[in-house]
Amino acid sequence: xxxxxxxxxxxxxxxxxxxxxxxxxxxxxxxxxxxxxxxxxxxxxxxxxxxxxxxxxxxxxxxxxxxxxxxxxxxxxxxxxxxxxxxxxxxxxxxxxxxxxxxxxxxxxxxxxxxxxxxxxxxxxxxxxxxxxxxxxxxxxxxxxxxxxxxxxxxxxxxxxxxxxxxxxxxxxxxxxxxxxxxxxxxxxxxxxxxxxxxxxxxxxxxxxxxxxxxxxxxxxxxxxxxxxxxxxxxxxxxxxxxxxxxxxxxxxxxxxxxxxxxxxxxxxxxxxxxxxxxxxxxxxxxxxxxxxxxxxxxxxxxxxxxxxxxxxxxxxxxxxxxxxxxxxxxxxxxxxxxxxxxxxxxxxxxxxxxxxxxxxxxxxxxxxxxxxxxxxxxxxxxxxxxxxxxxxxxxxxxxxxxxxxxxxxxxxxxxxxxxxxxxxxxxxxxxxxxxxxxxxxxxxxxxxxxxxxxxxxxxxxxxxxxxxxxxxxxxxxxxxxxxxxxxxxxxxxxxxxxxxxxxxxxxxxxxxxxxxxxxxxxxxxxxxxxxxxxxxxx
Length: 539
What we know:
This protein is α/β, with parallel strands linked by helices. The chain has 22 helices and 9 strands. It has helices at 2-31, 35-46, 72-86, 88-93, 112-123, 132-135, 142-156, 168-171, 181-195, 216-219, 235-246, 255-262, 271-287, 295-307, 317-335, 371-381, 383-392, 400-415, 440-467, 469-482, 487-494, 503-531; strands at 56-58, 101-105, 127-131, 160-165, 202-208, 226-229, 342-347, 358-362, 484-486. The strands form 2 sheets. Strands 1-3-4-5-2-6 form a 6-stranded mixed beta sheet, sandwiched between helices. It has a 3-stranded antiparallel beta sheet with strand order 8-7-9, with helices on both faces. Helix 3 packs parallel to helix 5 (112-123). The radius of gyration is 32 Å and the shape is globular. The protein starts with a helix and ends in an 8-residue tail after the last helix.
């Protein structure tokens, strides 16, 4: 009996197994799964760890410090690494331990990557390059393997430079949970940086726009010993950057003259922005079949970078009037505020479907600002919205970006700069997990103070517009008539600006006015010359 039962159980089990296999085969056929493709996929997954993405390496880099302008302080610090890579024995004999590497921080486009390459070019050493995101994969251990291979290759080619761009992709503050691919990769990076000594003659640079979010272990001495800060260039530095990027361009004037004229018009621009402006100016001149790039081409390039390309959008007279009132409102308010940026040009030629008007303002180069300057920036940006309400009795969506900027400035005054009355000398911050490190009561106070600042500046803005309503109307009419107004034409309507705090900014405006007057004289002379027609003698 038992044998019959056992046999029946076995047969039943075999039958179930056969049915399962048949069902799987039927399902695969119904869904289009191919057995060969499935086996290939399984083989690829087995070999995934072997197919580690290779790093990038460059040798014989021709870029040197002479190719970089506007970064004088970072350049001095990087020269120390160059001397170490060129003459390591000098330091080893003295028993000195040179920094293993440096973190390069600052806004985008300020020359961090270019400086690291120049360091390799000056030292004539191999340049190993990877982005932080190149290390990270969904499979744990791949990133760590890539870190090991990168450092192994650099040691073999020593002296060498390793450069990791956007290191915040892998070097962020580790969470308490741990165990993820990013944490595994960061741990391996920390181990490798501890693993090589100054005698290995390998220097590691890493760049990031967010040094504040990096793990503390990366920034401790013995790993990234130094933090080199890159900032936006000032007026003199922008002039030097222009001269570098103007090389090779055929211009109607000498390069140094053009650089001197363009530098004040580019306040707040990075080195990458300036390079883009020079290229855009060359494109504009070539499109017009000019033999050389003229100053007007550079000005149009700046307008394109700041405001975008002019669009052929048909506007009704009512829409033109609305845009002109919005731009004139901001212009008039800024004109009568001491710390507001200086207005250079206005236009109602659309740049996009959302940016229907364009005004070019030059902010101050001052690194430190007082509360009055921040409040003046809020006040003038509210001018467009207030002018709409004053002239049309309602508001539109045209002031969306201005309102966003107003809130950002007011919020920073309260939460980051400690200038709010109820939260004076208090800086509100977030903890390492991105959570607010302050109470709900303090958060409510911050919201109330932010709202209070915006309301106070709204009242001040309305008062200025009420007093200067006729000037807003007159400027808007002139803008509709001409479509674009420069500083000289604006000054004809508004008169001389009563007061401006920044003397350098005032000099910039004076220089621009002189340049426009000279151009106007040149245009008149050209027009007069073309009008001279030689009449042949009838005899």
